[in-house]
Amino acid sequence: MKDTKSFIINSPLDMHLHLRDVDMLKLVGPLTSNTFSGALIMPNLLPPITTKEALTAYKKRIQEACDDEKFKPHMTIFFQVDYSYEFLKEIKDEIIAVKLYPFGVTTNSETGVSSMDVEVLRPTLESMSKLGIPLCVHGETKGFVMDREKEFLPIYESLAINFPNLKIIMEHISSKESIELLEKYDNLYATITVHHMMLTLDDIAGGMLNPHAFCKPIVKRPDDRQALRELALNAHPKVMFGSDSAPHQKNTKECHHGAAGVFTSPIALQVLTQLFDEYGKLENLNAFVSLNAQKIYDIKPYEKEIKLIKEYFEVPKSYTYKNEEVVPLFAEDTLAWSIEK
Ligand SMILES: [Zn+2]
């Protein structure tokens, strides 16, 4: 077997990213824009992004923080049941998708949708179908933590059946049952994170507690992880990379009531390259981190060549800016691949 020493990723895209705001945005923004050509930005600020004014202003803050002309933030708005057709038509060119959070399932989702009844959602989803605006969904119920995604699958199914012309993206899928559903309907797509491909629940709670690996949906069993790996490693055309990198201030993770979210932006490409290399699947990496998303969302990213080299990368113990401090996944571990400076 040939020993690969370097690998080029063309125009990497992160199709699920939390950049937060203010100083945290200034800290984490460049850690994505340095190495990615574009990203789909989640709208769950406090308050969430629901108007054109808020969206435009947030995009401007992102562009200022990232300061890289070869980085495109693809904006989203926070799903509301009362968005009118006229509003969606007006904002269509400013957004790549609308993100739906069921009420209270993750960070800043307290203003999310309280009923997942298809008839309640119908007016907005029909407008989106007509206008060709995709729907991104955080698909979890409020059931037992290991079963939340599985319990949400009938809702995905009814959305897929009721809105056949709507592109529905099952965000951060974490279980093998979700993969079966993904295969069943043409209008379902999915993103997969680094952490769901690298970790199981044992890495959070099997030995010493690791709050920096705690996220929603929670990482699951070894067979779930293996099924997700296979989907990504084979660059299944309905699947794309979305890190769900979700920074939280260190002291809100390492505490009583620690926040859910894993910060992976500065390590994602190195970890993915390591994983795809280990399985001898590097030839599929560009499809998983860029080409599939280009087709699914019909976007053309800036050309950006990122060269990965097989040299050790010591993951920093944290990243800081002013009073913000964020601990990345695999802090102080050594990765087999690094990004050429
Ligand atoms: Zn997310």
Explain this structure.
The strands form 4 sheets. Strands 2-3-4-5-6-7-8-9 form an 8-stranded parallel β-sheet. Strands 1-10-15 form a 3-stranded antiparallel β-sheet. Strands 11-14 form a two-stranded antiparallel sheet. Helices cover 36% and strands 16% of the residues. The protein is an alpha/beta fold and 341 residues long. It has helices at residues 22-33, 52-66, 85-91, 118-131, 148-162, 176-184, 194-198, 201-205, 222-233, 250-253, 268-278, 285-297, and strands at 6-10, 13-17, 38-41, 72-78, 97-100, 135-137, 168-170, 188-192, 239-241, 305-309, 313-314, 319-321, 324-326, 334-335, 338-339. The two termini are 28 Å apart. The model has no long low-confidence stretch (mean pLDDT 96). Bound molecules: zinc ion.
Could you give a short description of this structure?
The protein contains 12 helices and 15 strands. With 341 residues, the protein is α/β, with parallel strands linked by helices.
Strand content: 15-25%
Number of distinct helices? 12
**What is the overall silhouette?**
globular
What small molecules does the structure contain?
zinc ion
**Roughly how much helix do the residues carry, as a percent range?**
25-40%
Tell me the structural class.
Answer: alpha/beta
Features:
alpha/beta; single chain; about 350 residues; three-stranded antiparallel beta sheet; about 15% strand; about 35% helix; binds zinc ion; eight-stranded parallel beta sheet; 12 helices
